[in-house]
Specification:
Structural class: alpha/beta
Strand order of the largest sheet: 2-4-5
Strand content: 15-25%
């Protein structure tokens, strides 16, 4: 018998208009998602503002034995959208610092060249990395500049005393191993090990790891 079933309708090809509509719909969804993420960030930022409109975070401790703490150069890439970013788009930022000794603390924000000029010749620490959970900060110490008179006095000394590994590192960074006086006295084995890492010969090592113990070790060494 002849086949009497109706012929299958040919598939209609998607028109260019329908494809364009699908693409446009996908782009609209992506833009909406980005706007939602940006809105969430703004809502989070607003939630962190105090009653004066400043963004705020918790308090963390930065520390150094030098005269100052600085940060590396900060570069902000806006991708050509700097005109769209107003000064108060996300909020205002206020930096507060307090010394654990109660002494006044100066906080400054300036261009890199101005900071370098301000700290030139002064021992200071540079923050190189910060982890937030838990909070830890890493530093790089910049030693103070040594004047010609100071270098002459160091070279003319008979003995140098080191009371910590950091003083060994900073001294060698400042004057070099060749500038170390002929007799090296260390407060203990850890400091002595650091001195030997710099190829220094340790002549005196305190048995009691205090400043008084180091003085006693020097007196005993001088009397022999």
């Amino acid at each position: 018998m002849p086949d009497t079933s109706p012929p299958a309708s040919p598939r209609r090809r998607r028109s260019a208009g329908r494809i364009a509509a699908l693409v446009a719909g996908g782009l609209a969804a992506l833009v909406a998602l980005l706007m939602l993420a940006a809105g969430g960030a703004l809502l989070w930022g607003n939630a962190q503002k105090d009653h004066d409109g400043y963004l705020h975070t918790g308090t963390d401790r930065f520390h150094t034995r030098t005269a100052a703490i600085a940060t590396d150069n900060l570069d902000v890439e806006t991708g050509g959208a700097s005109d769209l970013l107003g000064h108060d788009l996300f909020g205002k930022v206020r930096v507060r610092a307090e010394s654990h000794t109660g002494k006044p603390v100066f906080v400054g924000i300036a261009r890199t060249a101005e900071v370098d000029r301000y700290l030139r010749g002064t021992a200071h620490a540079i923050v190189t990395d910060v982890d937030t959970s838990p909070f830890t900060a890493k530093y790089r110490t910049v030693p103070a500049a040594v004047t010609t008179e100071q270098r002459a006095a160091i070279v003319g000394a008979d003995v140098i005393t080191f009371t910590s590994s950091s003083t060994v590192d900073r001294f060698v960074d400042a004057v070099g191993a060749d500038g170390v006086p002929p007799v090296v006295a260390c407060i203990g084995p850890v400091t002595a090990a650091t001195a030997r890492e710099h190829d220094l010969t340790v002549d005196v090592e305190a048995k009691v790891h205090t400043v008084a113990g180091l003085v006693d070790a020097l007196v005993e060494w001088a009397s022999t």
